Amino acid sequence: MAPFNHDQISAAAWLACGGAIVWGSTGHGLGTMAAPGSGFITFVAGMGICLFAAIGLIEASLRQGKEGGWTPILKGVRWQITLLVLCALTAYALLLSPLGFILCTALFVGFMLRVVKPQGWLVVAAGGILAALGTYGIFELWLKAQLPKGPWGF
Amino acid sequence: MDFFQSVLMGFQVALQPGNLLFCFVGVLIGTLVGVLPGLGPVAAISLLLPTTFHITPVSAVIMLAGIYYGAMYGGSTTSILVNIPGEASSVVTCLDGYQMARRGRAGPALGISAFGSFIAGTLAVLGLMFVAPPLAEMALKFGPPEYFSLMIVGLTILTFLASGPMWKALLMACFGLFLGCMGMDSIMGTTRFTWDIVELSEGFGLVPVVMGLFGISEVLLNVEQAMERSVFETRIQNLFPTRKDWRDSMGAILRGSVIGFFLGILPGGGATISAFTAYAVERRVSRHPEKFGTGVIEGVAAPEAANNAATGGAFIPLLTLGIPTSATMAILLGALVIYGTQPGPMLIKEHPNLFWGVVASMYLGNFMLLVLNLPLIGLWVKVLKIPYPILFPLILLFCLIGAYSLNNNVAQILFMILFGFLGYLFKKFQYEAAPLVLAFVLGPMLEKALRRSLLHSGGDPAVFLTRPISAALLAIALALLLFPLIPKFKKKRPAFGE
Questions:
Q1: For each successive 10 residues of chain B (498 residues), what is the average pLDDT?
Q2: Residue A100 neighbours by CB under 8 Å, 6+ apart
Q3: Is the pTM of this model over 0.80?
Q4: In terms of domains, do A15 and A62 share one?
Q5: Would you call B199 an interface residue with chain A, using a CB distance cutoff of 8 Å?
Q6: In which domain, by residue range, is B471 found?
Q7: What residues of chain A, 99 to 128, have a C-beta less than 8 Å from chain B?
Q8: Secondary structure letter of residue B192 according to DSSP
Q9: Looking at the structure, do residues A62 and A114 belong to the same domain, yes or no?
């Protein structure tokens, strides 16, 4: 059990986020009522976030005593897999241009097939290659999307 | 152009081979995503949005609309056979549909679901054809203050009907408003909150935002869970309902159609609430309410008719007022803007081929779904058996390619991953993304309407109260905000995920 509940933690984070938006908006100029500035609407949005986050924080704190804490959001789930998928997605974005679409995609799909619920190497290799070639065919050859090519020309 | 000429023109557009093909592709993909739990129409439309940039706007909207109402058909299959709703709107179908399957009546359950959906979908399209044009005529009288107030009502109703505490929905709407207004200020010509990142000069794009919030986040949540599911093993036979089945269901289908259509028009009403309401009404009017939940055919027919009719109703505020009533409609609105078509009262006048073409395609699409669904049920059952560990890399791959192909820029992928992670956190902390997306899409329009109103009135905020339509709309928004404070209604909001 953690000392704060979900809503207390998230509302506090929102309060900080709303505060940052309000502060940032003043830098863009709020203007006047007759001629609202660039920061006017984002200022209003930031104030709204602060207001509702404050309401949430108060409501969650009043609830706190009755509920007695919360179960951490990562408890009982395979969060490591989620982290790996996030890392793989980021790696795909960063390696797409240097490696080219086909190689990068084959590696990505193969990695995903191997990591979440490990498949045999044949499925991994075939899945990676087929997915890469299939999507290349659909997007590059049929829909004429310009997918990046690596140093090998594909 | 009179009504019948318009309808005829719509069919001429919809029957063009290319449009027929895209309609077919749309309903096929829609049924597929409806069948697959964890991948809904919002994610599917987000995924396919970039691919539609290469085709004409009419074909694109025909296909995207097909995905939307096709998913409603497909969602029932999983509800009946697996007891897992493919869509939130099919949750209530599980109650009697799965029980029917367990008693060896999976065939009639699937059959009445398909026929009921077809009848309701067709009635809803008829309603759309009759209601939309006069509503659009009326909306031509709207100026910036009325539009501002209308958008406030849209946001308020959606947040009011979203599940979980209201402060969360309103907070998400404010955050969506902020995100939508990032980038270029179209009035002053300056940029806001771009932190010198060139790719942010136009703000976040709709596609990376929705793909991340609905597609990536769903995968991130699914992969951390055990991913086993079993399909109820039964022989599916006698898909055509018997005469008694028809007698029992016809009233339910008609009532469900009316309820779905009108609730679909309301912002936030949508297919899910329609299905639940239709089920509740059916139970109330039934001569044997105690049998509901044990496998009665009306319990399948009513919600399936309602959720399909709601999709037709949902197009009315989008196409006539430019106001989306759900996340899916918000994405469609964004898509129309990307295609260079401004949804709103002028749409029917300026782009009659688009409006009437899409409406006519919905007739044809409903017919295609009926023809497609009944013979292909065996195939959908096989699709259900595809293991998620094989499926999810492909979902991710489509997201990645979709984001990249927006403007061949890796930054869009990174933005999508960022929103995917945010969407994951939102779900963990029980914040709904729908109000955010709606406000994100409406944000720039709302800002423009607000600033134009204030500029024209010389900075007098009373302009929103002195114009009768605007004042009435704001009064509705205020009433909706205060409504939950009434003790009697305080505990009526559904919990997150309900």
A1: 80 92 91 73 76 84 88 78 69 83 84 87 84 80 86 74 79 93 85 88 85 85 71 64 88 92 73 81 85 88 89 84 79 83 80 87 86 77 76 85 82 93 92 85 86 87 89 87 66 51
A2: A148, A149, A150, A151, A152, A153, A154
A3: no
A4: yes
A5: no
A6: 3-489
A7: 105, 108-109, 112-113, 116-117, 119, 123, 127
A8: E
A9: no
